[in-house]
Amino acid sequence: METPLATIIGDRSALSLKSAFGYTLVGDLLTHYPRRYATRGELTSISGIPLGEMATLVGEVVSVSKRTMKAKRGSVLEVVITDGTGLVTLTFFNQAWRANDLVAGARGIFAGKVGIYRSERQLTHPDYELFEASELSTERGEEWAKRPIPLYPATQKVASWQIAKAVGVILDVLEDVLDPVPEDIRVAEKLIPVTRAYELIHRPQEESEWQLARDTLRFHEAFVLQCALVQRRAIARSVQSVIRKPGALTQTLQGSLPFSFTDDQEKVNQDIRADLATGHPMNRLVQGEVGSGKTVVALMAMVTVAESGGQTAFLAPTEVLAWQHFRSLQATLGPALVSELKPTLLTGALSAADKKRALLLAASGASRIVVGTHALLSDTVQFADLGLVVIDEQHRFGVDQRDALRQKGTHPHVLVLTATPIPRTVAMTVFGDLDISTIRNLPQGRQPILTHVVALADQPGWYPRIWERLAEEVRLGRQGFVVAPAISPTAKEDDLDLAEDSEEGPSRPLATVLETLPMVQALPQCQGMKVAAVHGQMPAEEKDAVMQAFAAGEVDILVATTVIEVGIDVPNSTAMVILDANRFGVSQLHQLRGRVGRGAHAGVCLLVTHCEKDTPARARVDAVAGTLDGFELAKIDLELRSEGDVLGTRQSGRRSSLTLVRVTHDGELIDTAREYAEALIAKDSTLDSYPGIQADIHRRLDDRSAEFLDKN
């Protein structure tokens, strides 16, 4: 599996595969599985394939003709094939010699980009491979006709049949591959040996063979990844950490709170207290809806760590959020605990004097809670006894950034907070080396949010009503947000954290903050109202001043980008208008919506879109309008997009190691693999007795990916 491809298939083919897919080893190509299977008797429809896309067809030549080009010298060979639903033309320029092979009745696989000429679909200079005539003359003709043909994910330069040929060369010389699944598990799960599985998934003789191979290899993926995660979890638990137990300070905080914890919050408190008392580093993910009370749970942990002189570094993704967390923590702690713990804010926007003071408080241990942004990661920031790292919205930080903060202490406890709910199977797959706590119940008194899709493609006349509805809330003494996906018309979409598929084409410009602000100010409905804007390119002081004014009620309507997505808590805000809502992901829309309805009055959220019905982007918007359950939306989000982003591949720098497993559908398989992995690691935490697993972990998770999991 670690053999260089070039030594088996030759330099030229190996270079093509490296250029097209990044493959360099035998194992890379063997795990490039067919996307589907055709049969030689099957005629695949081309009618539904959009123009400009690659198509792979199993077809039969109907006619062959040659004509002289009128505008230039040379000839055109036109070969008409049938794909079962009609005819498609293969066009070759100055290659009349191909008529020797492409004769009427010849059958084969044809691959190329779908174009159009004189209203007819055509493939120009397609790659093809004809079926051997000898195959047709054998007595096993019926068996031949039913034999599956693997069709691979291909590119314009490397066709499916070329991949199949290269895989065939490897299979012909492949020796027994070390099986990662122990024999007792293989027997219990009715799996076939891994070498046989590779043979059958690439060269099946019948449908049942590739299905059996796929089931075996799917189990391998789930099992090996779970072994890697469980092993790292076991290693983490073997490290010694300072025991932290609640005492008088923790009791003082809990007794001063003007509310009681929900059952979910109390359960998470118990989980965290148990972790802090084990003597091993806590690695816990706390997930919960916007406003479910994750931060106060984290504060309980911070105060518990402070009981023994330990410090907490609370890492927030933005300046605005860091300021808000700092003020919120101070208000919750109360004067006595603030005096005792001396919470400190450290951000890049501080003056030199304030920054020097914050650094001194952190380094001396006088401040036992340090809230900050990326500034906390600086080499100049030191702690006397960093006992706890709290990370808000983990996905906003790179792996190296998170690890840099953790390295400032000696095996500190780690608590990760996220308001983006994660389906259980995803959590097991991505965060399998973290303990996971969930806060589902919202605190009492939280108001409902009415969400409506304003589909301007269907009802353009609804546009004025959007602003009238916003103004109604303001006239009642409340406040509202208007969210736009871009800052200015010159903003590059590549720099925006937006969903990729707009289905609107390039002709419709995005709504922007800098254009929406004067428009809202000029609306008749909004006359006399104070309208301001905030976005990520503003200086931190100006941005914070606007947010403070909004929180104080001095601004009625705030026009913003997704800078308000997390952490903005203004109980008086009840209305939100999201322009070009289809340009945001499901979780983003849900997070934004959570900024309203946080006080005594119900919220309203208007999702404005120009998208037509039955498009993926419109499906996202409709899904958010259909439910307030973030966990249900997380499942929908996962079904609407690939696992690639979910599995952290953007941060790890490589494609997902999951090729066959789908976390949306394979929850039971992941459960089973997890149970086997836990039992195995309990017997042999180093996996030295299982060289097959070690080899597969090394192959699937290269050094960078292993480091990614380790730091996570």
Describe how the helices and strands are arranged.
Elements: H1 6-9, H2 11-21, H3 26-30, E1 36-39, E2 54-68, E3 75-82, E4 87-93, E5 107-117, E6 120-124, E7 127-130, H4 133-137, H5 141-146, E8 148-151, H6 160-173, H7 183-188, H8 194-202, H9 207-238, H10 248-256, H11 263-276, E9 283-288, H12 294-306, E10 311-315, H13 319-341, E11 344-346, H14 352-364, E12 369-372, E13 386-392, H15 399-406, E14 413-418, H16 424-430, E15 435-439, E16 449-455, H17 463-475, E17 479-483, H18 513-522, E18 531-534, H19 540-551, E19 557-560, E20 573-578, H20 586-593, E21 603-609, H21 616-626, H22 630-640, H23 643-646, H24 649-652, H25 667-683, H26 691-700, H27 703-711
Parallel strand pairs: 4-6, 9-14, 9-15, 10-12, 10-13, 11-12, 13-14, 16-21, 17-19, 17-20, 18-19, 20-21
Antiparallel strand pairs: 1-8, 2-3, 2-5, 3-4, 5-6, 5-7
Helix pairs in contact: 8-9, 9-25, 9-26, 10-12, 10-13, 11-12, 12-13, 16-25, 21-22
Structural account:
The protein has 27 helices and 21 strands. It is an alpha/beta fold and 712 residues long. Residues 136-141, 492-506, 643-656 and 706-712 have low confidence and may be disordered.
Main β-sheet: number of strands, strand sense, barrel status?
A: 7 strands, parallel
The amount of helix comes to 40-55%
The level-1 CATH class of the largest domain: Alpha Beta
Please state the structural category.
alpha/beta
Taken as a percent bin, the fraction of beta residues is 15-25%
Major sheet: order of its strands? 11-12-10-13-14-9-15
Low-confidence stretches: 136-141, 492-506, 643-656, 706-712
Q: Please, how many domains?
A: 3
Alpha carbon gap, first and last residue: 28 Å
The CATH homologous superfamily of the largest domain is termed P-loop containing nucleotide triphosphate hydrolases
CATH fold naming of the largest domain: Rossmann fold
The appropriate CATH architecture of the largest domain is: 3-Layer(aba) Sandwich
Secondary structure: number of strands: 21
On the 0-100 scale, what is the average pLDDT?
84
Number of helices: 27
Backbone shape: globular
> For the CA atoms, what is the radius of gyration?
30 Å
